[in-house]
From TrEMBL:
SUPFAM superfamilies: Glycoside hydrolase/deacetylase. Keywords: ATP-binding, Hydrolase, Nucleotide-binding. GO terms for molecular function: 5-oxoprolinase (ATP-hydrolyzing) activity; ATP binding. Catalyzes the cleavage of 5-oxoproline to form L-glutamate coupled to the hydrolysis of ATP to ADP and inorganic phosphate. It comes from the Bacteria. Forms a complex composed of PxpA, PxpB and PxpC. It catalyses: 5-oxo-L-proline + ATP + 2 H2O = L-glutamate + ADP + phosphate + H(+). Its EC number is 3.5.2.9. The gene is pxpA. Belongs to the LamB/PxpA family. The lineage of its organism: Bacteria, Bacillati, Bacillota, Bacilli, Bacillales. This is 5-oxoprolinase subunit A. The keyword Transferase does not apply. It comes from Bacillus gobiensis.
Amino acid sequence: MSRVDVNCDLGESFGTYKKGNDSEILDYVTSANIACGFHAGDPSVMRKTVGLALEKEVKIGAHPGLPDLIGFGRRNMQLSSEEAYDLVVYQIGALYGFLKAEGAEMQHVKPHGALYNMAAADPSLADAIARAVYKVNPELVLFGLSGSELINAGENIGLATASEVFSDRTYQPDGTLTSRSQPEALITNDEKAVHQVIRMVKEKKVATLGGEEISIQADTICIHGDGIRALSFAKKIRGAFEQANIEAKSVR
């Protein structure tokens, strides 16, 4: 039987602004990436999301992003390695406080949005993020795009890593995700997305936007929790796993 983690970005509401279906989606994932207040989330949302995840026995990770609430952390910013290190340590620490208060442990760290994509291609930025995670707790698992510089940096510093793939995104020949600025970046057909996921897990292959087949490592699959069909898609993914003899299991 194949095994794969299913993760989702959660805790992305802010103040009176509500985003996602956190409580419902937690029934179908094995790991939760909780926003730490820079791209989304606030202290109350963080506390409540931690509580929901613990109640449903879902493993918890920090989801640090760029300080860009208006752009939801999806706009590139210029920052030094030192700045990247500091903002990742800061955000891990914020979530760690809420976990400590509940007597719980953190499983992983997964950068968000532009920070994630920039680190996938930039070795120095990837190294800064990996160092930040390692310095806070060398037992944490670093989530990064399959085949990316972030995975390389984590392995080089001695962290456990989880190569991540995406159910609803298209891929480029170099293994990167198609930019959201492009019209075909997102896969909106559920059946196509499910088929892509099953192939990535079972065959370790994915078709690029241009039709080329490339190899890919799928340790954890991201499903986005803020789309209008997110909950129904999460149910379909788990149902498809049962039919394909794939077990959904956290990385730890």
